[in-house]
Amino acid sequence: MLDIAEKVGRELELRGMSMATAESCTGGWIAQEVTAVAGSSAWLECGFVTYSNKAKHTMLGVDPAVIETYGAVSEQVVIQMAEGALQKSEADIAVAVSGVAGPSGGSAEKPVGTVWLAWAMQGKPTVTLLNKFDGNRESVRQQSVQKALEGVLDCLHSA
């Protein structure tokens, strides 16, 4: 995954932009991947690890009523996470992830492997993506990180 993290860094640096992460099921793995890139301090603003619902609210401003209504693993919540990361930082783009990594915690509506991602950019509509990943906990989390970084590149290329 270092290759894609390096690509993200190059694209951000070329544009004079920085990013923030808002992570739940990945537990900081996205930030870990980008900080493995030498010079990432030039383009990584910060990372929020908001595993609990309380942390999503206190750190990112996610509305508890939205969590109660839609669940932590929902499009509505990841939108608020990504937009909250932008508001609470000086970043130009933020990626957010919330999902069911397993092996337990899944339901009929949201089985293990269900992962929502959102990308928010200053002055642009927030983009979301629902994923249904296969595999064990480690695999679901790894696929989430990969997709999150790919999405950052997609947003930068379409900006």
Automatic annotation (TrEMBL):
Report the Gene3D superfamilies cross-referenced here: CinA-like
- Signal peptide position in this chain? none
Listed name of the protein: Nicotinamide-nucleotide amidase
Report the residue ranges that make up the CinA C-terminal domain in this protein.
3-155
User: What NCBIfam families does the database record attribute to this sequence?
Assistant: PncC_domain
Taxonomically, the superkingdom here is: Bacteria
Return the Pfam families for the record. Answer: CinA
